[in-house]
Design goal:
The protein is of the alpha/beta class and about 140 residues long. The chain contains 6 helices and 5 strands. The protein has a 5-stranded parallel β-sheet with strand order 3-2-1-4-5, with helices on both faces. Helix 1 (about 15-25) packs across helix 3. This is Universal stress protein.
Protein backbone atom coordinates (compact mmCIF):
# COMPACT_ATOMS: atom_id res chain seq x y z
CA UNK A 1 0.00 0.00 0.00
CA UNK A 2 1.27 3.47 -0.88
CA UNK A 3 1.13 5.72 2.18
CA UNK A 4 3.82 8.37 1.45
CA UNK A 5 4.17 10.08 -1.95
CA UNK A 6 6.89 12.52 -2.95
CA UNK A 7 5.95 15.06 -5.63
CA UNK A 8 8.90 17.18 -6.78
CA UNK A 9 7.59 20.51 -8.10
CA UNK A 10 8.78 23.62 -9.83
CA UNK A 11 6.69 26.34 -11.45
CA UNK A 12 5.90 24.22 -14.52
CA UNK A 13 2.53 23.05 -15.77
CA UNK A 14 3.89 19.50 -15.93
CA UNK A 15 4.66 19.56 -12.18
CA UNK A 16 1.10 20.70 -11.50
CA UNK A 17 -0.20 17.76 -13.56
CA UNK A 18 1.97 15.43 -11.47
CA UNK A 19 0.52 16.80 -8.23
CA UNK A 20 -3.04 16.46 -9.51
CA UNK A 21 -2.31 12.87 -10.53
CA UNK A 22 -0.86 12.06 -7.10
CA UNK A 23 -3.86 13.56 -5.32
CA UNK A 24 -6.26 11.52 -7.47
CA UNK A 25 -4.32 8.24 -7.61
CA UNK A 26 -3.39 8.13 -3.92
CA UNK A 27 -6.41 9.55 -2.04
CA UNK A 28 -5.36 8.14 1.32
CA UNK A 29 -1.62 8.81 1.08
CA UNK A 30 0.38 11.60 2.65
CA UNK A 31 1.55 13.83 -0.21
CA UNK A 32 4.75 15.83 0.20
CA UNK A 33 5.51 18.55 -2.34
CA UNK A 34 9.27 18.88 -2.69
CA UNK A 35 11.05 21.87 -4.20
CA UNK A 36 14.77 22.26 -4.81
CA UNK A 37 16.36 25.71 -5.03
CA UNK A 38 19.85 26.69 -6.01
CA UNK A 39 20.02 24.47 -9.04
CA UNK A 40 22.47 25.36 -11.79
CA UNK A 41 21.16 27.76 -14.40
CA UNK A 42 22.65 29.60 -17.35
CA UNK A 43 23.72 32.49 -15.09
CA UNK A 44 23.64 30.78 -11.69
CA UNK A 45 21.23 33.51 -10.59
CA UNK A 46 19.27 31.57 -8.00
CA UNK A 47 22.32 29.80 -6.61
CA UNK A 48 24.23 33.07 -6.32
CA UNK A 49 21.38 34.79 -4.49
CA UNK A 50 21.22 31.93 -1.99
CA UNK A 51 24.96 32.01 -1.43
CA UNK A 52 24.75 35.69 -0.56
CA UNK A 53 21.82 35.30 1.85
CA UNK A 54 22.39 35.62 5.60
CA UNK A 55 20.07 32.68 6.29
CA UNK A 56 20.17 30.16 3.44
CA UNK A 57 17.27 28.13 4.85
CA UNK A 58 15.00 31.15 5.04
CA UNK A 59 16.07 32.28 1.55
CA UNK A 60 15.24 28.81 0.20
CA UNK A 61 11.80 28.94 1.84
CA UNK A 62 11.17 32.33 0.22
CA UNK A 63 12.20 30.99 -3.20
CA UNK A 64 9.86 28.02 -2.73
CA UNK A 65 6.87 29.99 -1.44
CA UNK A 66 5.26 30.53 -4.87
CA UNK A 67 5.55 26.84 -5.71
CA UNK A 68 4.09 25.81 -2.35
CA UNK A 69 1.27 28.37 -2.61
CA UNK A 70 0.32 26.95 -6.02
CA UNK A 71 0.54 23.39 -4.66
CA UNK A 72 -1.70 24.21 -1.69
CA UNK A 73 -4.26 25.81 -4.02
CA UNK A 74 -4.34 22.61 -6.09
CA UNK A 75 -4.64 20.44 -2.95
CA UNK A 76 -7.53 22.64 -1.76
CA UNK A 77 -9.40 21.75 -4.97
CA UNK A 78 -9.23 18.12 -3.80
CA UNK A 79 -9.98 19.03 -0.18
CA UNK A 80 -6.58 17.63 0.80
CA UNK A 81 -3.70 18.73 2.98
CA UNK A 82 -0.13 18.46 1.73
CA UNK A 83 3.24 18.60 3.41
CA UNK A 84 6.02 20.69 1.91
CA UNK A 85 9.78 20.39 1.93
CA UNK A 86 12.45 22.58 0.37
CA UNK A 87 16.09 21.66 -0.14
CA UNK A 88 19.07 23.55 -1.49
CA UNK A 89 21.21 21.82 -4.09
CA UNK A 90 21.08 19.95 -7.35
CA UNK A 91 17.52 18.76 -8.14
CA UNK A 92 18.35 15.20 -9.17
CA UNK A 93 20.51 14.45 -6.14
CA UNK A 94 18.08 16.11 -3.75
CA UNK A 95 15.09 14.22 -5.14
CA UNK A 96 16.90 10.88 -5.08
CA UNK A 97 18.02 11.44 -1.49
CA UNK A 98 14.52 12.44 -0.41
CA UNK A 99 12.90 9.51 -2.26
CA UNK A 100 14.38 7.03 0.19
CA UNK A 101 11.81 8.08 2.80
CA UNK A 102 8.78 7.58 0.53
CA UNK A 103 6.86 4.74 -1.07
CA UNK A 104 6.79 6.32 -4.52
CA UNK A 105 7.69 9.45 -6.48
CA UNK A 106 5.30 11.19 -8.87
CA UNK A 107 7.09 13.64 -11.17
CA UNK A 108 6.43 15.65 -14.32
CA UNK A 109 8.55 14.81 -17.37
CA UNK A 110 10.35 18.17 -17.37
CA UNK A 111 10.21 21.69 -16.07
CA UNK A 112 12.06 24.94 -16.36
CA UNK A 113 13.42 26.48 -19.51
CA UNK A 114 15.06 24.71 -22.43
CA UNK A 115 18.43 26.12 -21.34
CA UNK A 116 17.98 24.67 -17.84
CA UNK A 117 17.07 21.26 -19.26
CA UNK A 118 20.10 21.25 -21.56
CA UNK A 119 22.51 22.24 -18.78
CA UNK A 120 21.07 19.97 -16.09
CA UNK A 121 20.04 17.02 -18.20
CA UNK A 122 16.62 15.53 -17.76
CA UNK A 123 15.92 15.38 -14.03
CA UNK A 124 12.85 13.18 -14.41
CA UNK A 125 14.70 10.65 -16.55
CA UNK A 126 17.57 10.37 -14.06
CA UNK A 127 15.19 10.09 -11.11
CA UNK A 128 13.25 7.40 -13.00
CA UNK A 129 16.43 5.39 -13.67
CA UNK A 130 18.08 5.73 -10.25
CA UNK A 131 15.26 6.04 -7.72
CA UNK A 132 15.25 3.60 -4.83
CA UNK A 133 11.41 3.55 -5.02
CA UNK A 134 8.92 3.29 -7.90
CA UNK A 135 8.51 6.45 -10.00
CA UNK A 136 5.51 7.58 -12.02
CA UNK A 137 6.22 10.17 -14.71
CA UNK A 138 3.04 12.15 -15.48
CA UNK A 139 2.50 14.08 -18.71
Amino acid sequence: MISRVLVPMDKSEMAEHALRYALEAFPDAEITVFHVVGEPSALWGEAASLALADDIGQAAEEHASDVFDDARAIADEYDREIATDVQVGHPTRAILNAAEGFDTVVIGPHGGSLADRLLMGNVAETVFRRSPVPVTVVR
